[in-house]
Amino acid sequence: MHALSRRVYFGFGGGFASRARMSSPAARVGGGGGVRDPSENPAVGRLRELVKCGEAADGWEKSWESGVTPWDLGKPTPIIEHLVKSGTLPKGRALVPGCGMGYDVVALASPERFVVGLDISSTAMEKAKQWSSSLPNADCFAFLADDIFKWKPSEQFDLIFDYTFFCALDPSLRSAWAETVGDLLKPDGELITLIYLISDQEAGPPFNNAVTDYQKVLEPLGFKAVLMEDNELAIKPRKGQEKLGRWKRFGQQSSL
Ligand SMILES: C[S@@+](CC[C@H](N)C(=O)[O-])C[C@H]1O[C@@H](n2cnc3c(N)ncnc32)[C@H](O)[C@@H]1O
Protein backbone atom coordinates (compact mmCIF):
# COMPACT_ATOMS: atom_id res chain seq x y z
CA MET A 1 0.00 0.00 0.00
CA HIS A 2 2.80 2.44 0.76
CA ALA A 3 4.84 3.68 -2.11
CA LEU A 4 7.71 4.47 0.19
CA SER A 5 9.21 1.52 1.96
CA ARG A 6 12.24 3.39 3.24
CA ARG A 7 12.57 3.87 6.97
CA VAL A 8 14.27 7.02 8.06
CA TYR A 9 14.10 7.23 11.79
CA PHE A 10 13.54 10.68 13.09
CA GLY A 11 15.62 12.06 15.84
CA PHE A 12 12.13 12.30 17.39
CA GLY A 13 13.29 8.88 18.64
CA GLY A 14 15.49 8.09 15.65
CA GLY A 15 18.05 5.46 14.82
CA PHE A 16 21.16 6.99 16.19
CA ALA A 17 23.26 6.44 19.27
CA SER A 18 21.03 6.57 22.29
CA ARG A 19 21.92 7.20 25.83
CA ALA A 20 19.91 6.35 28.86
CA ARG A 21 18.53 9.39 30.61
CA MET A 22 16.53 7.67 33.27
CA SER A 23 16.40 10.73 35.48
CA SER A 24 14.35 12.70 32.93
CA PRO A 25 10.52 12.68 33.00
CA ALA A 26 10.47 11.21 29.50
CA ALA A 27 12.64 8.35 30.63
CA ARG A 28 10.48 7.63 33.63
CA VAL A 29 7.27 7.46 31.61
CA GLY A 30 6.77 4.08 30.05
CA GLY A 31 9.58 2.48 32.01
CA GLY A 32 11.30 1.13 28.87
CA GLY A 33 15.08 1.16 28.30
CA GLY A 34 16.97 4.32 27.40
CA VAL A 35 15.50 7.41 25.85
CA ARG A 36 16.88 8.71 22.58
CA ASP A 37 17.88 12.31 22.49
CA PRO A 38 16.87 14.16 19.31
CA SER A 39 19.64 16.71 19.77
CA GLU A 40 22.14 13.92 19.04
CA ASN A 41 20.76 13.48 15.53
CA PRO A 42 22.57 15.71 12.98
CA ALA A 43 19.42 15.85 10.81
CA VAL A 44 17.48 17.29 13.76
CA GLY A 45 20.24 19.88 14.13
CA ARG A 46 19.77 20.86 10.46
CA LEU A 47 15.99 20.99 10.90
CA ARG A 48 16.37 23.26 13.92
CA GLU A 49 18.63 25.62 11.97
CA LEU A 50 16.14 25.77 9.09
CA VAL A 51 13.08 26.36 11.26
CA LYS A 52 14.91 28.92 13.42
CA CYS A 53 15.95 31.13 10.48
CA GLY A 54 13.19 33.56 9.52
CA GLU A 55 9.57 32.49 9.37
CA ALA A 56 8.79 28.99 10.63
CA ALA A 57 6.70 28.36 7.50
CA ASP A 58 9.74 28.99 5.27
CA GLY A 59 11.82 26.73 7.47
CA TRP A 60 9.39 23.83 7.12
CA GLU A 61 9.20 24.36 3.37
CA LYS A 62 13.00 24.34 3.14
CA SER A 63 13.21 21.20 5.25
CA TRP A 64 10.87 19.44 2.81
CA GLU A 65 12.65 20.83 -0.27
CA SER A 66 16.02 19.68 1.00
CA GLY A 67 14.79 16.33 2.28
CA VAL A 68 15.52 17.11 5.94
CA THR A 69 12.58 15.14 7.32
CA PRO A 70 14.11 12.99 10.04
CA TRP A 71 10.71 12.31 11.66
CA ASP A 72 9.36 10.49 8.63
CA LEU A 73 8.54 6.82 9.33
CA GLY A 74 7.89 5.90 5.69
CA LYS A 75 4.70 4.18 6.83
CA PRO A 76 1.72 4.82 9.11
CA THR A 77 2.35 4.73 12.81
CA PRO A 78 1.28 1.20 13.90
CA ILE A 79 -1.13 2.41 16.57
CA ILE A 80 -3.22 4.13 13.89
CA GLU A 81 -3.56 0.90 11.94
CA HIS A 82 -4.52 -0.85 15.17
CA LEU A 83 -7.15 1.79 16.02
CA VAL A 84 -8.61 1.58 12.54
CA LYS A 85 -8.92 -2.20 12.88
CA SER A 86 -10.43 -1.84 16.35
CA GLY A 87 -13.42 -0.02 14.84
CA THR A 88 -13.45 2.43 17.74
CA LEU A 89 -12.64 5.56 15.75
CA PRO A 90 -15.29 8.09 14.79
CA LYS A 91 -16.45 7.92 11.21
CA GLY A 92 -17.43 10.95 9.13
CA ARG A 93 -14.72 13.56 8.62
CA ALA A 94 -11.19 13.38 10.03
CA LEU A 95 -8.28 15.83 10.00
CA VAL A 96 -4.55 15.21 10.36
CA PRO A 97 -2.86 18.59 10.89
CA GLY A 98 0.85 18.79 10.02
CA CYS A 99 0.44 15.49 8.21
CA GLY A 100 3.76 15.46 6.31
CA MET A 101 3.82 12.57 3.82
CA GLY A 102 0.34 11.60 4.95
CA TYR A 103 0.76 7.90 5.73
CA ASP A 104 -1.62 8.24 8.68
CA VAL A 105 -4.11 10.12 6.49
CA VAL A 106 -4.25 7.23 4.04
CA ALA A 107 -4.43 4.63 6.83
CA LEU A 108 -7.43 6.40 8.38
CA ALA A 109 -9.29 6.93 5.11
CA SER A 110 -12.18 4.72 4.09
CA PRO A 111 -15.58 5.12 2.45
CA GLU A 112 -16.97 5.77 5.96
CA ARG A 113 -14.28 8.25 6.92
CA PHE A 114 -13.08 11.07 4.65
CA VAL A 115 -9.71 12.37 5.81
CA VAL A 116 -8.10 15.73 5.16
CA GLY A 117 -4.31 15.89 5.49
CA LEU A 118 -3.12 19.44 5.99
CA ASP A 119 0.45 20.72 5.95
CA ILE A 120 1.95 24.18 5.64
CA SER A 121 4.52 22.91 3.15
CA SER A 122 3.34 22.74 -0.45
CA THR A 123 6.30 20.46 -1.22
CA ALA A 124 5.10 18.02 1.44
CA MET A 125 1.61 18.07 -0.03
CA GLU A 126 2.93 17.48 -3.54
CA LYS A 127 4.95 14.52 -2.30
CA ALA A 128 1.97 13.14 -0.39
CA LYS A 129 -0.23 13.39 -3.49
CA GLN A 130 2.43 11.76 -5.65
CA TRP A 131 2.72 8.55 -3.66
CA SER A 132 -0.95 8.21 -2.76
CA SER A 133 -3.00 9.35 -5.75
CA SER A 134 -3.46 5.93 -7.35
CA LEU A 135 -4.30 4.02 -4.16
CA PRO A 136 -7.67 2.22 -4.07
CA ASN A 137 -8.97 4.55 -1.33
CA ALA A 138 -7.72 7.75 -3.04
CA ASP A 139 -11.29 9.10 -3.18
CA CYS A 140 -11.45 8.98 0.61
CA PHE A 141 -8.75 11.54 1.39
CA ALA A 142 -7.41 14.91 0.25
CA PHE A 143 -4.17 16.80 0.87
CA LEU A 144 -4.18 20.56 1.34
CA ALA A 145 -1.29 22.99 1.69
CA ASP A 146 -2.26 25.57 4.32
CA ASP A 147 -1.41 26.96 7.72
CA ILE A 148 -3.62 25.32 10.33
CA PHE A 149 -3.86 28.63 12.19
CA LYS A 150 -5.29 30.45 9.16
CA TRP A 151 -7.30 27.71 7.47
CA LYS A 152 -11.10 28.07 7.55
CA PRO A 153 -12.85 24.90 6.35
CA SER A 154 -16.56 24.99 5.67
CA GLU A 155 -17.27 21.99 7.93
CA GLN A 156 -15.98 20.77 11.29
CA PHE A 157 -14.44 17.33 11.93
CA ASP A 158 -15.51 14.24 13.85
CA LEU A 159 -11.90 13.23 14.51
CA ILE A 160 -8.59 15.07 14.68
CA PHE A 161 -5.34 13.11 14.94
CA ASP A 162 -2.15 14.85 16.03
CA TYR A 163 1.19 13.09 15.82
CA THR A 164 4.48 14.97 16.18
CA PHE A 165 2.71 18.20 15.25
CA PHE A 166 2.09 19.72 18.70
CA CYS A 167 5.71 19.05 19.70
CA ALA A 168 6.97 20.51 16.40
CA LEU A 169 5.31 23.87 17.04
CA ASP A 170 6.98 26.60 19.02
CA PRO A 171 5.58 26.26 22.58
CA SER A 172 4.24 29.82 22.36
CA LEU A 173 1.71 28.44 19.84
CA ARG A 174 0.30 25.71 22.07
CA SER A 175 -2.71 27.68 23.34
CA ALA A 176 -3.49 28.69 19.75
CA TRP A 177 -3.15 25.01 18.74
CA ALA A 178 -5.76 24.05 21.36
CA GLU A 179 -8.12 26.87 20.35
CA THR A 180 -7.76 25.89 16.70
CA VAL A 181 -8.34 22.20 17.36
CA GLY A 182 -11.37 23.15 19.47
CA ASP A 183 -12.78 25.28 16.64
CA LEU A 184 -12.19 22.62 13.98
CA LEU A 185 -13.67 19.73 15.98
CA LYS A 186 -17.40 19.11 16.25
CA PRO A 187 -18.63 19.53 19.84
CA ASP A 188 -18.95 15.74 20.22
CA GLY A 189 -15.85 14.99 18.13
CA GLU A 190 -12.74 13.16 19.33
CA LEU A 191 -9.19 14.43 19.47
CA ILE A 192 -6.45 11.82 19.43
CA THR A 193 -2.96 12.90 20.40
CA LEU A 194 -0.08 10.52 19.98
CA ILE A 195 2.21 12.26 22.39
CA TYR A 196 5.94 12.14 21.81
CA LEU A 197 7.49 12.58 25.24
CA ILE A 198 10.66 14.55 25.25
CA SER A 199 12.63 16.55 27.78
CA ASP A 200 15.94 18.32 28.35
CA GLN A 201 15.93 19.99 24.92
CA GLU A 202 17.34 23.49 24.72
CA ALA A 203 15.65 24.06 21.37
CA GLY A 204 13.26 22.46 18.94
CA PRO A 205 11.63 21.07 16.96
CA PRO A 206 10.89 18.76 18.58
CA PHE A 207 10.33 20.88 21.68
CA ASN A 208 10.09 19.54 25.23
CA ASN A 209 6.78 17.76 25.47
CA ALA A 210 4.84 16.14 28.29
CA VAL A 211 1.24 15.04 28.91
CA THR A 212 0.81 18.05 31.22
CA ASP A 213 1.54 20.40 28.31
CA TYR A 214 -1.58 19.10 26.55
CA GLN A 215 -3.67 19.18 29.74
CA LYS A 216 -2.65 22.78 30.36
CA VAL A 217 -4.10 24.02 27.07
CA LEU A 218 -6.92 21.52 26.47
CA GLU A 219 -8.59 21.25 29.87
CA PRO A 220 -9.59 24.95 30.10
CA LEU A 221 -11.50 24.38 26.85
CA GLY A 222 -13.49 21.51 28.36
CA PHE A 223 -11.42 18.63 26.95
CA LYS A 224 -10.77 15.64 29.18
CA ALA A 225 -8.61 12.64 28.39
CA VAL A 226 -10.91 9.61 28.35
CA LEU A 227 -7.81 7.49 27.78
CA MET A 228 -4.13 8.14 28.41
CA GLU A 229 -1.86 5.14 28.10
CA ASP A 230 1.59 4.07 26.98
CA ASN A 231 1.71 3.33 23.28
CA GLU A 232 2.72 -0.32 23.33
CA LEU A 233 2.83 -0.28 19.52
CA ALA A 234 5.38 2.52 19.21
CA ILE A 235 8.13 1.79 16.69
CA LYS A 236 11.24 0.47 18.39
CA PRO A 237 13.24 3.72 18.56
CA ARG A 238 10.25 5.49 20.16
CA LYS A 239 9.32 2.74 22.65
CA GLY A 240 8.61 4.14 26.09
CA GLN A 241 8.44 7.66 24.63
CA GLU A 242 4.87 7.75 23.38
CA LYS A 243 1.50 8.12 25.09
CA LEU A 244 -1.81 7.68 23.37
CA GLY A 245 -4.34 10.28 24.48
CA ARG A 246 -8.00 10.20 23.46
CA TRP A 247 -9.86 13.38 24.36
CA LYS A 248 -13.50 14.35 24.36
CA ARG A 249 -15.07 17.66 25.20
CA PHE A 250 -17.45 17.89 28.12
CA GLY A 251 -19.61 20.87 29.05
CA GLN A 252 -18.17 23.15 31.70
CA GLN A 253 -19.29 21.90 35.14
CA SER A 254 -21.60 24.26 36.98
CA SER A 255 -20.17 25.29 40.32
CA LEU A 256 -23.70 25.55 41.84
C1 LIG B 1 7.45 16.88 12.68
S1 LIG B 1 6.55 16.97 11.20
C2 LIG B 1 5.36 15.67 11.45
C3 LIG B 1 4.76 15.14 10.17
C4 LIG B 1 3.80 13.97 10.35
N1 LIG B 1 2.79 14.22 11.35
C5 LIG B 1 4.55 12.73 10.68
O1 LIG B 1 4.45 12.24 11.83
O2 LIG B 1 5.25 12.19 9.81
C6 LIG B 1 5.58 18.43 11.45
C7 LIG B 1 4.85 18.88 10.20
O3 LIG B 1 4.04 19.99 10.51
C8 LIG B 1 4.05 20.89 9.40
N2 LIG B 1 3.65 22.22 9.92
C9 LIG B 1 4.38 23.06 10.69
N3 LIG B 1 3.67 24.16 11.01
C10 LIG B 1 2.45 24.01 10.44
C11 LIG B 1 1.27 24.82 10.41
N4 LIG B 1 1.21 26.01 11.03
N5 LIG B 1 0.18 24.35 9.74
C12 LIG B 1 0.23 23.15 9.11
N6 LIG B 1 1.32 22.35 9.09
C13 LIG B 1 2.43 22.77 9.75
C14 LIG B 1 5.46 20.80 8.85
O4 LIG B 1 5.57 21.21 7.50
C15 LIG B 1 5.77 19.31 9.05
O5 LIG B 1 5.46 18.56 7.90
From TrEMBL:
InterPro entries reported for this sequence: SAM-dependent_MTases_sf, TPMT
TM annotation in the entry: none
GO-annotated molecular function: S-adenosylmethionine-dependent methyltransferase activity
Pfam families with a match to the protein in the record: TPMT (PF05724)
Keyword terms of this UniProt record: Methyltransferase, Phosphoprotein, S-adenosyl-L-methionine, Transferase
GO BP terms, alphabetized: methylation
Entry keyword annotation includes Lipid metabolism: no
PROSITE patterns tied to this protein: SAM_MT_TPMT
Name of the protein this chain belongs to: Methyltransferase domain-containing protein
Provenance organism: Leersia perrieri
